[in-house]
Each structure stands twice: as C-alpha cells, then as structure tokens.
UniProtKB/TrEMBL annotation:
Protein name, UniProt field: PBSX family phage terminase large subunit
PANTHER family with a match to the protein in the record: PBSX PHAGE TERMINASE LARGE SUBUNIT, PTHR39184
Organism: Tumebacillus amylolyticus
InterPro entries according to UniProt: P-loop_NTPase (IPR027417), Phage_terminase_lsu (IPR006437), Viral_DNA_packaging_terminase (IPR052380)
Entries under NCBIfam families matching the protein: phage_term_2
Pfam families, A to Z: Terminase_6N
Transmembrane feature ranges: none
C-alpha cells in the first residue's frame, strides 16, 4: 500500500516535470531563465577569490639551508632538542624556520598535535601563517585552515597533523594550551612572549621526539629567554644560529642599507635589530633628538597643514598634556602644547614658570581643550586609553573623533625614534615641556637588570602624548610582528 507521504512526493515530482516541459515550449521564458543562470554563474566566479601564487624561494643562504636540514637523519645535529635562531630583523629566520618546522613534523609524525605561537594570534597569522600556507601548498601539502578553531590541518602522503595556533599574549591561548599534548612547538618572536606561556607550552610537548623551535630579535642581556635558553644551550641541548640580514640573500644591498639607516639614530636598537646583539637599553631614550635638526622656531613653522591631530595624556595626579600636531607632506610638526601639572610641584622639580599649580576639575580640562583647539578642524584626537574621565568630559562638550591610543610603549618609542631619525618630526621652540622631556626621558637601569626594557616613568607626559599620535596613526601601518617599525622609508609609506 502506498503511503500519503509517498503520493505527495510523486505529485510534487510530476508538477516539477510539467513546469519544466512548459518552459521548453516557451522559448522566451526559457532564454530568460538561461540568462539569469549565466549571470549568477559569472557573479559567483568573480566573487570566488583568486588563489594566491605559490611562494617563490630565492637562493637559500647557508644558515637557511641548515635550518631546513638540521633535523634530518643525515645531519650531525639531528639529536638536538631545540633550535634557536636569533639576530637582526629581516634576516630570513621566520620564513625558513616555519616551513622547516612543518616539514619536520610531517616527515616524523602522523596524527599528532603541534603548536605554532606568535606574540598574538593576529600577528602570527599575518607574519607566519599567510606565507607558510603558500609555501606548503607550493610543496604539495594540503592545508585546511580552520580559522574559527585556530587550527591548520596539514596533509601529505596520507599523513595528517594538526597545528594549533596560539598567541603568547592572548588570554584564550593560555587556557587552550593547558590541556593539550603536543609533539612540537614553534615560537615566532619568542622574546616578546611571557616566560610563563613558553614554559606552559614546552611542558605540553610530552611526545617522544618532540622538538622546540624558537626565533627572535634580541632584547636586553638579562631578558628571561637569553638567561634561560641562550645562556644554557648545552643544558637545553639546543642548536643556536645567529642571523644577520646578510643571511637573507633575497635582500639587495639598497634594502639592507635602508634598514641600517632606519635604526642608525639609536645605538641600542641598531645593535639589537641590525647587528642582532643582546644589549642593554640605557641612557636617554630619544638620544637621536637633535636641537639643531628637530627644534624649529615658531616663526619657521609652515603656514598651513593638510591635517591636524591632537595627542592627549590625561593625568589626575600627574600632568595633563595636549599636543597640537600638524601633518604636511609626510612630515609631522608639534605646533603647540598645553601642559598642566595636576598636583603641586616645587620649583626645584620643574622650571615651568606656572609651577606650582593646583589640580583642575575634569570640566575645566575639557574647557581648556576647547580653548586650545578653537578654530581648528581636528582630524584625530588620540587619547591615553587610561584617560576615560577626560574622554567622557570632552564628549559631553561635543568633542568628536576621539580615538583610544595604542599604548604599547616599546613599539611606540621605536616608531617615534624612526620619525626622528628620518628627520620627519619637528617640534616648535615654544613647546618647552616636550623639549625638556626629550632630554630627560631615560631607560630604567633597574628594570634592565630584571630583563625588562622600559623607560623611567617620569617626565614622560608630553612624550606619551606625542607617541600616541605618531605610533597609533602612522607607526602601526608599518608595524611588523612585534609592532616594531620596519619596512619602506617612512615618507613613502605615509598615506596622506
Ligand atoms: N630564501 C628566500 N627566498 C625568498 N624570500 C626570502 C628568502 N629568505 C627570506 N625571504 C624573505 O625575506 C623577508 C624577511 O624574511 P623573514 O620574515 O623570514 O625574516 P625574519 O628574520 O623573521 O625577520 P624579523 O626579525 O623582522 O621577523 C620575507 O619577506 C621573506 O619572505
Ligand atoms: Mg620573523
């Protein structure tokens, strides 16, 4: 006996057949239908993304060749448990290490979990995963990127392994890594990760034959990675390779020269990022600031600017600073400053004629802001992310275009240094607080002994306001893995 449901299905089928038959008898309707189908097909073809071209390897340097082969059975160092590649920027460490890591994992294991870590997941994806996928696909690997799960599933020759993606500074990664068993871990820019994360991750590598892969640019000599790994190579059974830009044969002479120029204004960063040395950050932070070059008479400022920006450092117990910064043809000019100490300071601590001064109410600071910017069309106001009280007050007064600044101190400092070195940042003579801070802002020697890079948190309010604008608006366009500024000359990269 035929059921009611079966009769319904049969009737629907007949109806469809009939509709189709009618269509064939009506050539106009048929043509219309065909055209629509073609349009839809073309649109879907266009919207389909073009496959990225496979990665083009250029001649590998000897060190890169060693990175690619150190783990193979023929290698005299195949029994090492770890490889560490440190050294200068753009030296070709990441590109060959990340590929070698996956190649090793796929040659030695099947159905295992591995870890790939960067400072953050975003940085890792941008700097490592994107080129890595192109390299792997060019080498016949099948790569499925499960973005939602932060996993890459890699297959070749009927072997499949899963690579979990972690961010050393991402909280979500801290939880995820706790419960996992890994056969290897790759750390890109390990010196930018907390030691606790690296210890967690290495402790998860309990599979026999597991290896650790590290790369980084140097930091200070007391940095935890230098002390715990580089200074204990024998104990860790680790292979150490020191890279410079000359180990990346894809860079031409002019490019190497450009990078050298970029850092030549700062002895510390030159030693670290060009020579690849673990040296302490000491002395004046902005030692490349030169009155002769960077300080200009107010009368010598350009008459007009393409855009104006304001940097705001908000202090309830410290100074509140507004800096008016004009942008013109790829250069930045600090035109004038507002600087108010919120607490009484003695003449001894400040040669500001207005000191000592009393604190002001938030509404007074907001009123001062309006007076400071009166008549100007301000494109962006970059405010200290901790200055919510002032932001709220400014918004109450109708001030718009306020952006929370990126307060990542080291990359921010490096960004300002590059602008100074490239002679693209100038300060009007009347900004006396900012000018004074340039001379007194120093690296913290005590912090350096603990392996940390940080400036002494004193006399830094105007410099913070400057850093907010320079780094958040301009530096980050060119930020690399670590947020350090690298790349083309600043002038050519500014989008006006
Ligand atoms: N053998 C090569 N063939 C083609 N391109 C290469 C080769 N070696 C390096 N490169 C390219 O050089 C650039 C720098 O390489 P990579 O990112 O690996 O350097 P790095 O040492 O990790 O730099 P950083 O310290 O700044 O992160 C990249 O664009 C990379 O693709
Ligand atoms: Mg790198």
């Amino acid at each position: 006996m035929i059921s009611a449901a079966e009769i319904h299905v049969a009737e629907q089928h007949d109806e469809r057949v009939l509709r189709r038959a009618n269509l064939y008898q009506n050539p106009e309707a048929f043509q219309k239908r065909l055209d629509r189908a073609r349009t839809l097909r073309d649109a879907s073809k266009k919207s389909r993304k073009k496959k990225p071209a496979p990665f083009k390897w250029l001649t590998l340097s000897q060190k890169q060749q060693l990175v690619l082969s150190w783990w193979t059975p023929e290698s005299p160092v195949c029994d090492r448990d770890a490889i560490i590649c440190d050294g200068s920027v753009r030296a070709g460490k990441t590109v060959c290490m990340s590929f070698s890591y996956v190649d090793w994992a796929m040659s030695c294991f099947h159905d295992m979990n591995f870890g790939l870590a960067g400072k953050t997941i975003g940085a890792l994806r941008r700097n490592v995963i994107t080129p890595l996928k192109r390299i792997l696909r060019g080498r016949g690997y099948k790569v499925v990127d499960r973005r939602a799960d932060n996993q890459l599933v890699v297959t070749k020759n009927r072997r499949t392994n899963t690579f979990y993606i972690f961010g050393g500074k991402d909280e979500s990664s801290q939880d995820l890594i706790q419960g996992i068993t890994l056969a290897g871990m790759f750390f890109d820019e390990v010196a930018l990760m907390p030691e606790s994360f690296v210890n967690q991750a290495t402790a998860r590598c309990s599979v026999t034959g597991a290896k650790f892969w590290f790369n980084c640019n140097p930091a200070g000599p007391y940095h935890w990675f230098k002390v715990s790994w580089l200074d204990k190579l024998r104990e860790k059974n680790a292979l150490h390779l020191h890279f410079t830009m000359h180990d990346n044969l894809s860079l031409d002479k002019a490019t190497i020269q450009r990078y050298e120029n970029l850092y030549k204004g700062s002895p510390v960063f030159y030693k670290r990022y060009i020579l690849g040395l673990w040296v302490v950050a000491e002395g004046v932070v902005y030692d490349m600031f030169d009155d002769e070059i960077h300080k200009i008479a107010d009368g010598a400022l350009p008459n007009r600017f393409e855009r104006y920006h304001i940097g705001v450092d908000a202090g309830q117990t410290n100074a509140t600073v507004y800096l008016l910064i004009g942008e013109l043809r790829g250069k930045l000019y600090v035109i004038r400053e507002y600087y108010h100490e919120s607490k009484a300071v003695s003449k001894k601590d400040s040669d500001d004629e207005e000191a000592p001064s009393k604190g002001k109410a938030p509404s007074e600071y907001a009123a001062d802001f309006l007076a400071f910017t009166v008549g100007l069309n301000i494109s962006n106001i970059l405010i200290d992310p901790a200055g919510k009280w002032l932001r709220t007050e400014l918004e109450k007064k109708g001030v718009r275009r306020i952006i929370n600044a990126d307060n990542d101190v080291l990359p921010g400092i490096s960004s300002v240094q590059v602008w100074l070195t490239e002679k693209l940042l100038f300060v009007a003579e009347s900004c006396k607080n900012l000018l004074r801070e340039f001379g007194s802002y120093i690296w913290d020697v005590k912090a350096a002994e603990r392996g940390e890079d940080k400036p002494v948190k004193k006399f830094d309010h105007a410099l913070d306001a400057l850093r907010y604008v320079v780094y958040t608006l301009f530096g980050k366009k060119r930020a690399s893995v670590h947020g350090r500024v690298v790349g083309k000359s600043v002038a050519s990269s500014i989008k006006l």
